[in-house]
Amino acid sequence: MSGGHSHGPAPSERSGSAAARWRSRLTLAVVLIGGFFLIELVTALLSGSLALLSDAGHMAADVLTLAAALGATVIAGRPDRSGRRSYGRYRIEVFASLFAVLVMLAVAAFVVIEAIGRIGSPAEVGTTPMLVVGALGLLVNLVVMALLRAGAGESLNLKGAYLEVVADTVGSLGVIAAGVLVTATGSAAWDTAVALAIGAFVAVRAVMLGRDVLVVLGQETPRRLDPARVEADLAAVPEVLEVHDLHLWTLTSGMDVITAHLRIRAEADSHGVLDAAHQVLREKHGLDHATLQIEPEDHRTDEESTW
């Protein structure tokens, strides 16, 4: 029996290099979003705008997402000297995303509770700060989008951060719309209505992100992969008689992993079969990180020997 693994680049080389090239832009994005979050939070508290406060909470989630993306490019490249992290530190990104989910849900819950408390007796809202800060937030988000757009095409890690900023741009537009409506009608109810809409938007996105996080932590088969098709393609490799104990899961964003046992003809060239199987996985399914165990035809496991 012989075992095999991917002979390609190490995971850190494959998954970290693209994001690492954009690390300086990610750093600038974190500084811009983080700095504006503080400005928006203070302005929201002083102006009494719930829409502005909800968008500040949304931007806080942006800071966490961007920081997690930035941290992943740094931490993933660090060697593990303990010898106990056989897959490195890639799951840190997943746990950071889970933390972001909890923050986003807390923000959405706060906005809903605050909005319910204002029904029937809306608070006074300063529309000028709303419009100024909303416009500034829109500008900051557009700048950050420009910084990350190109990198989003190379790294799934950056793509997630980019889409988070795109969503926050919608929140900034909502703040501006609330300011205009309150100014035009004189009714602060528009501020509450827009805040509820932003809160619902944040909650929906949090649930969607949370579902993706649980899929990874539960080691479910990635949605892009069909286990039956992967098994069939491996079984079609010349000299392979049977495929069993096949497992597919996601280690972290952009890094899917497979393990499988391949039973081959006794006279087959195990090295040739191994190389052919890895080529099939890489070219047909985009799986670079694979561990394949080769079993000769006459090999029997402990379970089979008792039949």
UniProtKB/TrEMBL annotation:
In terms of InterPro entries, this protein maps to: Cation_efflux, Cation_efflux_CTD, Cation_efflux_CTD_sf, Cation_efflux_TM, Cation_efflux_TMD_sf, CDF/SLC30A
Membrane topology field: Multi-pass membrane protein
Residues spanning the membrane:
26-53, 59-77, 98-117, 129-148, 160-182, 188-208
Q: Which residues form the Cation efflux protein cytoplasmic domain?
A: 226-297
Which keywords does this Swiss-Prot/TrEMBL entry list?
Ion transport, Membrane, Transmembrane, Transmembrane helix, Transport
Subcellular localization, as worded in the UniProt entry: Membrane
UniProt cross-references to Gene3D superfamilies, sorted A to Z: Cation efflux protein transmembrane domain (1.20.1510.10)
- Give all residue intervals belonging to the Cation efflux protein transmembrane domain: 26-217
Kindly give the PANTHER family that the UniProt entry links to this protein: CATION EFFLUX PROTEIN/ ZINC TRANSPORTER, RE54080P-RELATED
Q: Which family does it belong to?
A: Belongs to the cation diffusion facilitator (CDF) transporter (TC 2.A.4) family. SLC30A subfamily.
Q: What is this protein called?
A: Cation diffusion facilitator family transporter
Q: What is the lineage of its organism?
A: Bacteria, Bacillati, Actinomycetota, Actinomycetes, Micrococcales
